[in-house]
Design a protein that fits this description.
heterodimer, A: about 290 residues, mainly alpha, MetI-like fold, about 0% strand, B: about 260 residues
């Protein structure tokens, strides 16, 4: 070793510490190959098959069937989001209000379905919602006959909302946890009734969590494939199923690709719209 | 918050219902798996172990299970290595480019599954990767990467970098400092990333449905095709096994973590 060679501490500086970008390269290369390139392929195919042009997009937005499915995808996702907000709000609030032991149980109830295989959970819903299933047997015993759940939009919403509920509860809880409950007491000491204090103080402070959760749930719901495929019927087809049919059954890569691009662009536009709102709201929440 | 007793009771009841809705539906696979008849109709009739036996002896089920274990194990290691490296890189980069790259690396979480699936399928058809182990591993690794990145980044955030400087000032090289100081401290993050990566791959279905072929099926694909094809209670048996395996794994992990935390206090 010559004396001119750098000593140990500066080796540390010269090595990977000074070139952190290199560490991200393997992941970035894989990302480009397995996400970037395939998405690019789909975009190109949507414009180039069978010949170059925007015919596939004209076809997509010109056929009433497609528009019905597009609208239905949005409606189902909106319903799922509403159901999730309504169910998650009181649940997340209770998580902040109880002692550590009960909280652990509540957290486990959220995390267990998060961990159980998604396919298995959808299978459970198939068993529960089928015409000879548990829920229909109960309904029949209660005197409600002939209610169909499987292969209907209601069934799809029930199954999807259960799968997506944790994505709503967790952000909501993390925001609610930070709300200073003394503010509520202050409002009440100033003469506000509990309900008034809730609506003017607590609810606005918890809204960032609602926004964050709702956006995540809505975006994930838009792209759902397995649950609608197994629980839905022809009258509850969502966009993802249509994409799959075009590509796998009809080999219409152009049309399927165009639909995929529409779904992709919608997702990213929603994310872009939500990002600044969520960030500023979060900052507000953090400033308190 | 002061609440009227009535509000409190209603709140409790609503939450109980939500908790039941979250947990109970999945449990229905347990009674169904002991059904005597080849049907998924409720209530199940009689009692038998035949569907568990079928899972173990039927080559379709067993091979798909083994494929899933194989793919998920490779993915867990690969995604953990790539994700940990990337998390380190991002941690040491300037905030602006790091945030941009982080968002880029999290895209697999938000790209709609089917869109990604047709894209990967298109590329795999050209590259002859449909129905291959390499194909599955590559696709699942990129889907698992965000989870590793999040887990490792979270533990790097609380890691005090002065410890590395201290190690360097005591004469440790970069690698030695990493191996003896940094790695042990962020190990919990790496391990939970590993677990998440395994689970993600083991459970992945949408992309798998497109890149599978009769020669290479993973367990979720087999479950999916079994549900759509016929009412074979073997799926319920598999579901029960997975349910218990997950519960034991998570429960054990939580107990271990709790004990460690108690020990360190």
């Amino acid at each position: 070793m010559s004396a001119l060679e750098p000593t140990t501490p500066s080796v540390a500086k010269r090595g990977w510490v000074s070139r952190p970008f290199a560490l991200t390269l393997p992941a970035l290369i894989l990302l480009a190959a397995v996400i970037g390139y395939p998405l690019l392929t789909i975009m190109v195919r949507s414009l180039s098959e069978p010949q170059w042009g925007v015919q596939n997009y004209l076809w997509f937005f010109g056929a009433p069937v497609n528009l019905t499915v597009l609208q239905r995808t949005f409606v189902i996702s909106a319903w799922v989001t509403v159901v999730c907000v309504v169910c998650a709000y009181p649940y997340a609030y209770l998580m902040t209000a109880v002692g550590p032991r009960v909280r652990l149980v509540l957290v486990l109830c959220v995390l267990i379905p998060f961990w159980v295989s998604g396919v298995v959970r959808t299978l459970s819903w198939v068993i529960l919602l089928q015409d000879s299933g548990v829920i229909n047997s109960l309904l029949r015993a209660a005197g409600f006959d002939g209610i169909r759940l499987i292969r209907t939009q209601t069934g799809v919403v029930i199954g999807m909302a259960q799968v997506l509920l944790p994505f709503m509860i967790l952000p909501l809880y993390s925001v609610m946890k930070g709300i200073d409950l003394r503010l509520m007491r202050a409002a009440q000491s100033l003469g506000a009734r509990p309900s008034r204090a809730f609506f003017t103080v607590y609810l606005p402070l918890s809204l960032p969590g609602v926004y964050a959760g709702a956006i995540i749930v809505f975006i994930l719901a838009l792209g759902f494939y397995i649950t609608p495929a197994l629980l839905g019927g022809p009258r509850s087809t969502m966009l993802s199923t249509l994409v799959q049919t075009q590509v796998l059954s009809l080999l219409q890569w152009g049309r399927g690709g165009a639909m995929g691009v529409v779904l992709l662009v919608t997702t990213f536009v929603l994310l872009a719209l939500a990002a600044p709102v969520m960030r500023s709201r979060y900052r507000e929440a953090g400033r308190r | 918050m002061e609440m009227k007793p009535l509000t409190r009771v209603i709140l409790g009841l609503v939450c109980l219902l939500v908790a039941i809705w979250l947990v109970a539906p999945t449990l229905v696979v347990v009674p169904m798996s002991f059904n005597e008849n080849k049907s998924l109709a409720f209530p199940p009739q009689g009692f038998s172990w035949q569907w568990y036996l079928n899972f173990v002896t039927n080559p379709d089920w067993m091979s798909s299970f083994l494929n899933s274990v194989k793919v998920a194990s490779i993915v867990a290691v690969l995604a953990t290595v790539l994700g940990t490296l990337a998390a380190f890189g991002l941690d040491r980069m300037k905030a602006r480019p790091a945030n941009l790259l982080r968002m880029l690396m999290l895209t697999p979480m938000v790209v709609p599954g089917v869109v990604l699936a047709i894209g990967i399928y298109a590329v795999y058809l050209d590259a002859h990767l449909v129905g291959t182990l390499t194909g599955f591993v590559l696709a699942h690794t990129i889907l698992a990467l965000p989870f590793v990145l999040i887990a490792v980044s979270a533990s790097l955030e609380v890691f005090d970098r002065r410890l590395e400087t201290a190690a360097a000032s005591l004469g440790a090289g970069a690698l030695t400092a990493f191996r003896t100081v940094t790695l042990p401290l962020i190990l919990p993050g790496i391990l939970s990333g590993l677990l998440f990566a395994f689970a993600t791959s083991f459970d992945e279905i949408v992309v798998s449905l497109f890149i599978t072929n009769p020669y290479l099926k993973t367990l979720p694909v087999q479950i999916f095709s079994s549900i759509t094809r016929d009412a074979d209670p073997t799926v319920a048996a598999v579901g029960t096994i997975l349910l218990f395996a997950t519960t034991i794994l998570i429960g054990g992990g939580m107990l271990l973590l709790g004990r460690e935390r108690k020990g360190s206090q």
